[in-house]
């Protein structure tokens, strides 16, 4: 038998199509034919490829049956349901953002450590990043030929290199597929939105006496997305869960009462849907759709003080909120709940057998993902200084200005008069080619396996933002005056350069000419290209034997080069040498240094680095007897040299012991892992902003200076210590088909890369921290005073907890088919983040359901499979939690009992977020040979998300944990022969 029984999950999945993720050896098949059909299984958590070897690093596996049961247009969604994956990004996250460039980007995060600390591989090979942060987009992977996904839940840098701090997610494709298969899928929510269509086909055929293997596949996926709601609390569809939940800040920290108050139906009183005068004697005058003034209804009995500061008594002036009242101008629910997505993928693999043991191959993948989202409706703007002489003002307001002796007032508006809302449109196009060889040979009387490959990948991302305000023009357009009886822009320079006035007092639609001026067709734009080249070679064999069996050895080397360049539009970047200047003509109203857009001010930059690596891994059998069981020692080391930061070493030491107790195995591994700074952190495109009244601690005075947010080429890799200890019970004689494992993990990351602001950098230098003193110059020989705000190796993260996994496969007398019960759980005991800044306090965000690391996450599946049909029920659950963040840990207390509130430990009156249970059901039925119909209902009980309060009126829900879409129906057909 030539199978490598790496894990029971893999063995069971490939032999019977069951769902299991236990990292244990399966019982040998009774039928020799079934044994040979298993072929070889390559374990992701190790480079050792020897029969019978069991890696000490826990690995969870999703097989083809699991992925099909999930019935998702993107298998990323199925994989992220594993409890160990926390904080992954996808089509439902980041939709509130205009400038991040990560909308619709599907990328994994293990242990809540972030997508940048999880290494994602395709057939054990790196994939070109789809973002300057270095993370790939799973939507760009070929998916129909994926036969399993391995999730290594421990550090793996010694085996695979940088980024494997949280672990590894490895997609394994079927490299010998023969025949034809197709899959079509459609879906819709219970609210009638997010219609989805998926079509996939794959074919494989052998030629030249089965020596030439050719595979092709193609996919098209269209997901409508969930459109944004409107203003106020108008959620999309008939969803009614949005309540503008907010943490309002009383602004008092030491009176024995909580500083923050949890409130729903919060009202931002600085602006309204069609405009509000927010200070002075006319404070509280609002405007309706027709531009008529009326008295704004403040919530909670709030009364405007009508002073210059715009205070509202009876409300929370520090946070700018009332509770209740007129909520029509709030903008938080105007965010897409899921991005629109269109995905196209073409993949081919051609392999040629040089002989029975050696193959050369080439793969090529071309993929494109287009997404779009709405970050918010209108463009809420506050503190606009408006003139009482503005000809668009109603006569009654002009008269009130005169009666009160004022000539200007502050004004805020949601800009609901704009006919189209802001939309962001990222498009990612990726080309990836690999040539390689895989096989075995004899040397020194021993058999050795090898694999070698060269990969080149390019990812181009183009981001367009549409219908967004060009702020200097907007500010010029709203300041109107009358010249020769015509209403025109007050600024003669703006007027001479095409300014068309607009009326922001009410809901009158601006003219087409005015819209073209303030929201030009050529909006914010970013063009970026990421390139990756990798050359790798690996060997594995058993050079000699000891008393307990053969010693296994793996070794190899890798060279990698990463590079990127990004170009922003001139209005955002300030780069007048941009080749797009014909689309962005010069305008004296605009700021030459850029940052002219309401949002989406992209900047230009470039950078590259290269890596050389060499590693070795050895497995030494220590014990092999009936009396003492079977034990092995697994060790690995890797030398890595970065062109930017020099040399770093990683290693792991672990082992397993199959004890004499029936089915009981112990395993443990500890490792030193790294995450190298990515291109964005090293060579971030510079962003310059002016900071007036900047405090100079050296003189005690103030000055105006430039803050340059730039990359830091002197960054070093983050270093992590990762330890896992576990016990496994697998397939005992007293309960065949049952397995359970419990693993404790502990990760300590030091030198974490974090950013500092200009004032922090200067203050640290003043306090004697010399490493920050070179980042600023208050008296340069040329130019203005500046501070370079950079990232530094300052932060640390400490997290620990448990992974528990169990499965039981059984049959019942006189009942056809097989039954499987499976459960996976992850406990996050602590997740402590220390920013590394003097005076800052470490925060434990474990159990914060406003983030990504609840105390417990659980996935349970019960399935019944027969030759004709299959049924399954799945439960996804996570525990109750609290509010908070990586720098904030709230202290719940009531009036009269609160300690002094601090920045990292603020006091709050209510600090609870209910967990959630989601029930999914699925089934399939085979119609004759090759044809199968299937269905899936996600969130069967239509469980609404628990409010996740914001400190403004943003979307009060957390898509990292909660389902925002509601009940979802999928149906489809599969065909194969």
UniProtKB/TrEMBL annotation:
* Name recorded for this polypeptide: Outer membrane receptor protein involved in Fe transport
Signal peptide residues are 1-21
Q: Which residues form the TonB-dependent receptor-like beta-barrel domain?
A: 408-940
Q: What broad taxonomic lineage does this protein's source fall under?
A: Bacteria, Pseudomonadati, Pseudomonadota, Alphaproteobacteria, Caulobacterales
Q: How does it sit in the membrane?
A: Multi-pass membrane protein
User: Would I find Transmembrane among this entry's keywords?
Assistant: yes
The UniProt record lists the keyword Transmembrane helix: no
Q: Which PANTHER family match?
A: PTHR47234, SECRETIN_TONB SHORT N-TERMINAL DOMAIN-CONTAINING PROTEIN
Pfam families attached to this UniProt entry: Plug, TonB_dep_Rec_b-barrel
Please give the family membership noted in the entry.
Belongs to the TonB-dependent receptor family.
The places in or outside the cell where this protein is found are:
Cell outer membrane
Q: Which InterPro entries match?
A: Beta-barrel_TonB, Beta-barrel_TonB_sf, Plug_dom, Plug_dom_sf, TonB-dep_rcpt-like
Keyword terms, alphabetized: Cell outer membrane, Membrane, Receptor, Signal, TonB box, Transmembrane, Transmembrane beta strand, Transport
Q: Which branch of life, at top level?
A: Bacteria
Q: Where would I find the TonB-dependent receptor plug domain in this sequence?
A: 55-168
């Amino acid at each position: 038998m030539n199978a490598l029984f790496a894990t029971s999950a893999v063995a069971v999945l490939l032999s019977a199509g069951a769902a299991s993720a236990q990292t244990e050896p399966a019982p040998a098949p009774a039928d020799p034919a079934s044994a040979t059909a298993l072929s070889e299984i390559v374990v992701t958590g190790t480079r050792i490829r020897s029969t019978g070897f069991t890696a000490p690093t826990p690995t969870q596996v999703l097989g083809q049956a699991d992925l099909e049961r999930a019935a998702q247009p993107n298998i990323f969604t199925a994989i992220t349901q594993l409890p160990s994956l926390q904080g992954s990004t996808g089509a439902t996250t980041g939709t509130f953002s205009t400038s991040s460039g990560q909308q619709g980007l599907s990328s994994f995060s293990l242990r809540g450590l972030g997508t940048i600390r999880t290494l994602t591989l395709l057939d054990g090979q790196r994939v070109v990043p789809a973002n300057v942060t270095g993370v790939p987009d799973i939507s760009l992977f070929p998916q129909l030929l994926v036969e399993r996904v391995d999730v290594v839940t421990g550090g793996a840098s010694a085996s695979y290199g940088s980024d494997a701090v949280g672990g590894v997610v490895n997609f394994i494709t079927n490299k010998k597929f023969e025949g034809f298969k197709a899959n079509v899928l459609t879906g819709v929510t219970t609210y009638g939105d997010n219609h989805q269509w998926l079509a996939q086909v794959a074919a494989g055929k052998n030629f030249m006496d089965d020596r030439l293997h050719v595979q092709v596949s193609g996919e098209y996926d269209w997901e409508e997305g969930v459109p944004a709601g409107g203003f106020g609390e108008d959620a999309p569809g008939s969803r009614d869960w949005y309540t503008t939940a907010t943490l309002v800040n009383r602004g008092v920290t030491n009176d024995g009462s909580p500083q923050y108050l949890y409130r729903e139906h919060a009202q931002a009183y600085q602006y309204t849907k069609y405009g509000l005068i927010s200070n002075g004697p006319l404070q509280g005058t609002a405007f309706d759709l027709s531009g008529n003034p009326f008295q704004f209804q403040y919530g909670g009995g709030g009364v405007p003080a009508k002073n210059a500061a715009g205070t509202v008594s009876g409300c929370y002036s520090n946070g700018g909120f009332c509770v209740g009242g007129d909520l029509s101008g709030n903008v938080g629910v105007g965010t897409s709940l899921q991005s629109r997505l269109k995905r196209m993928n073409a993949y081919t693999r051609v392999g040629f057998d040089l002989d029975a043991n050696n193959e050369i191959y080439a793969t090529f993948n071309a993929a494109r993902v287009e997404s779009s989202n709405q970050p918010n409706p209108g463009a809420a703007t506050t503190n606009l200084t408006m003139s009482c002489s503005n000809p668009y003002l109603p006569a009654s307001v002009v008269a009130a200005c005169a009666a009160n002796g004022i000539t200007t007032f502050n004004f805020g508006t949601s800009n609901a008069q704009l006919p189209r809302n802001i939309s962001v449109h990222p498009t990612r196009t990726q080309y990836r080619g690999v040539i390689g060889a895989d096989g075995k040979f004899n040397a020194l009387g021993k058999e050795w396996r090898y694999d070698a490959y060269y990969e080149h990948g390019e990812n181009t991302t183009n981001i367009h933002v549409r219908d967004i305000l060009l702020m200097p023009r907007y500010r010029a357009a709203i300041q109107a005056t009358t010249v020769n009886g015509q209403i025109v822009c007050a600024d003669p320079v703006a007027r001479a350069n095409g300014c068309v006035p607009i009326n922001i007092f009410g809901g009158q639609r601006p003219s087409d000419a005015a819209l073209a001026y303030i929201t030009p067709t050529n909006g914010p734009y970013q063009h970026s290209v990421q390139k990756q080249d990798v050359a790798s070679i690996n060997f594995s064999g058993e050079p000699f034997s000891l008393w307990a069996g053969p010693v296994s050895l793996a070794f190899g080397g890798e060279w990698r080069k990463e590079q990127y360049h990004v170009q922003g539009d001139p209005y955002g970047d300030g780069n007048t040498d941009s080749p797009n200047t014909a689309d962005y003509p010069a305008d004296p109203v605009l700021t030459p240094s850029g940052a002219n857009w309401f949002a989406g001010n992209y900047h230009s930059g470039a950078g590259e680095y290269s890596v050389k690596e060499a590693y070795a891994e050895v497995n030494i059998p220590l014990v092999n007897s009936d009396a003492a069981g079977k034990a092995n020692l697994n060790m690995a080391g890797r030398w890595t040299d970065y062109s930017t930061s020099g040399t770093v070493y990683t290693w792991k030491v672990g082992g397993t012991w199959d004890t004499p107790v029936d089915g009981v195995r112990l395993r443990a591994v500890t490792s030193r892992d790294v995450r190298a700074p990515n291109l964005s952190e090293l060579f971030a495109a510079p962003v310059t902003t002016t900071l007036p009244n900047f405090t100079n601690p050296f003189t005690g005075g103030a000055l105006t200076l430039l803050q340059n947010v730039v990359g830091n080429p002197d960054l070093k890799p983050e270093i992590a210590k990762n330890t896992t200890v576990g016990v496994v019970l697998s397939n005992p004689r007293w309960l065949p088909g049952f397995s359970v494992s419990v693993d404790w993990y502990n990760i300590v990351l030091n030198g974490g890369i974090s950013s500092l602001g200009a004032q922090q950098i200067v203050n640290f230098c003043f306090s004697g921290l010399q490493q920050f003193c070179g980042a600023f110059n208050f008296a340069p020989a040329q130019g203005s005073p500046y501070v370079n705000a950079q990232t530094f190796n300052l932060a640390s993260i400490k997290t620990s907890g448990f992974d528990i996994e169990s499965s039981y496969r059984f049959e019942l007398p006189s009942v056809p088919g097989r039954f499987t019960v499976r459960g996976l759980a992850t406990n996050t005991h602590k997740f402590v983040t220390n920013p590394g800044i003097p005076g800052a306090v470490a925060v434990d965000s474990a159990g914060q359901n406003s983030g990504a690391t609840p105390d417990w996450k659980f996935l349970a599946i019960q399935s019944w499979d027969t030759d004709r049909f299959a049924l399954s029920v799945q439960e996804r659950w996570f525990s109750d939690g609290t509010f908070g963040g990586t720098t904030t840990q709230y202290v719940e207390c009531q009036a009269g009992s609160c300690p002094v509130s601090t920045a990292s430990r603020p006091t709050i009156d209510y600090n609870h977020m209910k967990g959630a249970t989601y029930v999914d059901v699925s089934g399939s039925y085979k119609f004759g040979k090759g044809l199968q119909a299937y269905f899936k209902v996600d969130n069967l009980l239509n469980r609404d998300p628990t409010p996740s309060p914001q400190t403004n009126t943003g979307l009060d829900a957390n898509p990292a944990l909660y389902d925002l879409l509601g009940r979802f129906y999928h149906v489809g057909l599969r065909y194969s022969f």
